[in-house]
Amino acid sequence: MITIIVEDGSIVANANSYISLADARDRAEFLGVTLSSDDDTASAQLVQAAYYNDSMYSDCFQGSIVDSSQKMQWPRNGVYIYDNPFPNDSIPQQVIDAQVFTAGAIEGGTKLYPNDNGRSVASETVGSISRSYFNNGKTGTDVTITSTENAIKPVLDNCSGKYSYSVYS
Which of 113, 122, 151, 168 could form a disulfide with 98 if both were Cys (CB 3.0 to 4.6 A apart)? Predict the structure, then answer.
């Protein structure tokens, strides 16, 4: 069983989430997101989502972390949301919502760390080795959790498209 330790902006030791399971369930309902009904699974998905979003967006978040010893990407100094300064002792709702959206995507079957290249084989020949793929538009690098991207955009710096990350579903 995973224990969620919530980062609330005060640089909590060993934090692994920006939201508690109970609050995530409430927020998910509000956002129309489905989380696992199993508490252990939902907790694990929330922790995975926080870690994944932090690692995928770390180069694009505005500002800088408050303390070099903090384990997560938030809180941060120098953040502006819609041209308004955001306090460096809080977690933006956009980051929390992005975590909930990503956890919901995991519950929906999105694989954050896939083992394939996203392409589907249309035909295969063993003698003289021949293989062709369906034109499914996948290159192994272009499945996006749009809800996560839309939620997190206000706290990103100019990433020139870097914040579009790849997952497979």
Answer: 151
Whole-angstrom Cα distance, residue 16 to residue 8?
11
108-167 tens-digit pLDDT: 998 887 665 555 555 555 666 755 555 555 555 444 788 999 999 999 997 755 444 444
Query: Cβ–Cβ contacts within 10 Å for residue 17, how many?
Result: 26
20-55 pLDDT, tens digit each:
999 999 999 999 999 999 999 999 999 999 999 999
- 39, 20 contact by CB (below 8 A): no
CA distance 74 to 125: 51
Identify each DSSP E strand in 12-165 by its residue range: 64-65, 76-77, 79-81, 84-86, 121-125, 130-133
Classify 65 as helix, strand or coil: strand
Q: If we measure between CA atoms, which residue out of 15, 5, 1, 28 comes closest to residue 104?
A: 28
Task: Give the span between the Cα atoms of 101 and 103, in whole angstroms.
Answer: 5
Residue 7 CA to residue 48 CA, distance in Å, equals: 14
Cβ burial, residue 44 (10 Å; 0-12/13-18/19+): middle
